[in-house]
Records
---
Amino acid sequence: MTKFKGYLRKDGSVGIRNNILIIAVDECMDGIARNIALASDDCVVITNHYTCMLGGQEETLNMLMEMSCHPNIYGVVVLAMGCGSIDPEIITDYARSKGRMAFALTSIKEKGTASSIKRGKEYLSEIVNEASKIEASLHSISKLKIGIKCGGSDTSSGMASNPSVGHAVDLLVDQGATCIAGELLELVGCEEELLRRVVNSEVSDKLTRLMSEEEKRWSIGGNTEFMSIGNSVGGLTTIEEKALGSLSKIGTKPIQGVLEFSQQGHERPETNGLYLSDVTMLCGGSAMHFATLGVHIILWTSGGAGFNSQLVPVIRVSGNRELINDDIDIDACGIIEGTHTVKHVGEKIRDEVYEVANGKQTSIESLGYSYATLYQKDVRLEHCMKGMSSCLD
Amino acid sequence: MATVLCHVKQGDELEIYSEDHKVNRTLISNSVIPYGHKIALCDIKADSEIYKQNIFIGVASEDIKEGMLVHVHNVSSKCINFTPKIINEILRQMNMEVAND
């Protein structure tokens, strides 16, 4: 059995990085959070930019709680201005219950910005000290969770990067890993094939429900925005064909379940194998969704776009010779050029997953740039307003 | 149908590869087929189902001759379809002139 060197956490999860998270629960703390983060290279900052109110933001709060004990995180500092609705201690209590070192800080109580930064840096340095004492140890691949996602897809994706990621997913699942895909809207048209692959009728009903809800969510004025003109200029003819590309990147294994996100919490995989989920098709938001599920590495197919995340390393795969650049980790162009097979590139991707799990930095991981959008699937306020307008009709 | 891996002009002779990179047959193109687009490998009758990698991707909305471009103007979805205006816009952006019957 293949193993990887990771950091064992007290809750039994294993990280592939040993980072520290700084969460700003309201946007007023973003500047303070980023200033504190300057004190360590291993810091990841996540800010809730939306509102400091709690009502309607339950999904976001759930996300922040799960991220505070992501396997790659040793400890967390949670910051609040002190005049909003989100109590930072809800997050630190949860993080401590999962064995993470956690500090909460409220700027008003701390007597302002300068003293908050000073105190935040003290907390950070305590965590850095403890984090440096932990040593990586060998763990089974069955501890690894891999996210599957595409973005900036073009005609090469369906032919090269998607099927080779699909083959890597099959190999990883055979080794005992858990692989999770999302983007349910992009699978519309493949329902028959997906329903043939689910493990039981309960999963089948749930998949049908969540796909239809996602379709409704993106229907504006009765027209679902199902495909861009750019997709068709690039060669995609029908939504069934587009879904085929999306389908090929999830491999061929049975679908164990569909993980639903809701105000009550985010479902997590109960066993190993392949899962679908409510993870959004929007890239920045998807990284945070994957982080919420405890995903260690995202496999991402593209032309030449440089999607990155500081919390969950991203392996970028491209099969487009014209667009490929230094940001891309895996060159799949040989498939179209006839020099490599899908099987060969799939094996290369699997090997890269092992190397990144063992600490190898992905091509732009060290640049530290990433988007961390806290995307909520359901916004309660908008539901309320829909309810109101139907009352008025 | 097959996907072309370079820009194809009308009358070009194409080699059709199998998944393991062997040449299965050759084919003369009957229209311009831009990179990444699809070409009919045989005559396709209107209303017959079209498959890619053994998975259904659409229904022929008219007879398609061998060697012709297979795309939004002659294939429709069973789920949801483009309006004629969008189809024309797609073809315009592709610099394609396809005879509209």
Note: Residues 332 and 392 of chain A are 55 Å apart (CA to CA).
---
Amino acid sequence: MENQKSIAETENEIIEDFKLLDAWDEDQKYEYIIDMGKKLPELDDIHKTAENVIKGCQSTVWLAADFIDDKVYFKADSNSVITKGLISMLIQVLSGRTTDEIIAARLDFINKIGMHSHLAQTRSNGLLAMVKQMKNYALAYKIKNTSKA
Amino acid sequence: MITATAIPKELDIAAIRQQFPVLNREVKGKPLVYFDNAATSQKPQVVIDALVNYYAGYNANIHRGIHSLAEEATAAFEATRDTVKQFINAAAREEIIFTRGTTESINLVANTWGRQNIKAGDEIIISTMEHHSNIVPWQLLCEEKDAMLKIIPISDDGELLMDAYEKLLGPKTKLVSIVHVSNALGTINPVKQIIDAAHRAGAVVLVDGAQSSVHLDIDVQKMNADFFAFSSHKVYGPTGVGVLYGKRQLLESMPPFQGGGEMIKEVSFEKTTYADLPYKFEAGTPNIADTVVLKTALDFINETGKTKIRAHEEILLHYATAQLEQIPGLRIIGKAKEKVSVVSFVIDNIHPQDIGILLDNRGIAVRTGHHCTQPLMQRFGIPGTTRASFAVYNTKEEIDAMITGLYKVIKMLA
């Protein structure tokens, strides 16, 4: 899947989507996120290995990455549907990007849609660890690619 | 079980609520409903005031200062020891040791009595429903000493299997360390029976009272516990203070936990002699302010009346249980006959974390996850639960808000 839009453009699309939701009804935001979570294809059990687990205190996230034609593609899943929804947005923004794009991504949209609390330590839901892990994959592929060249 | 009819006069819950300022706040634009009392209770205004008064009025280091402030602070600190002694009916004030919390109290026993008395091949008994803080210190000790940890199994309702327990007891059993009330299930364990059986086998018993102290009348002498531990912050007091009760002869026989000031009699480079009880176990400057204020919290409980508090909490527990049982797909985890006001549950195909996030969005604070009892969750084959735990200031209307919230949450997540 070729990602034609830039990271910033994709982030803006998500922010615009959230603006359409009733600002006073927090449930609407979560309904959107839950919907995103339900739409994210389930990860094949073959990828749900101990190696791919990002363990939060409560929910579990599985993250797999592929490096094809200088771009990183992510697949992920979680046993929490809200976490899965947040993951789905991260994948929408970061999957199919170059390693440099992923490493540089600031992911401001999480703040702008009011979901920053999910990155806080107290949530312990693995999302923060997931962002780190996505960037780690990008960094690892970049190093591997540079040493090859 | 206490019924409402047995109570001469019911508590004025509205008046009690007014004493807890945090209950006036909103969360996410909704009135706060605080159902995470098993994690920590909220604090009444008298406790908050007492903390300010200590720092504003008589803050000083205790025990050796000759000036007036030091005298006042020492008197207040030691007054808490007397109140704690009464609160759990210890035989003597020297049997009350102040720690940082239940966890430190347990670690103190593991590191002193445990290291002194546990030998290779000895056995320590705990149960399936222990908090991690009553598992890990014993695992560390067992590893160090090549001793064995034995686990009392539980029933599907979340009650200890007492026959199995009695079979675990034997000549190698040196210690039984048991939770009085389960934080995840609410089960009240028959500690008297557990202690009597352990004593017949010649074992020492530690009771983890972190969850029981706020709900139940505690009488360590009647219970005949050798050690009893609890935390201030779960009994409407400040964080950072805990209590370890120990029978005098046991405490006297134990080596010190930490070295430093306060805990010594004489120090020379050749030999140090230790202070008498309880100071032998209170090295360094203690958490004076919070310890002083623990007295205020216990006074609050005593004045409100534990029996009345319990009666109110029982009403909430039964009301919540009945309402929750109506929800399709919901299963209560922990159906012991004897319970405190804790109700843990799972809902088919919904992760507890999602329930917690969406209830928080409605201003309702519950706890979700494994509650630091991972082996217990494994026993039930679940990743975690959603837990609502009630205190004296909670109401049926708040439970209604949670139930309404849960129906909405299920609709959103289905």
Note: The two ends of chain B are 38 Å apart (CA to CA).
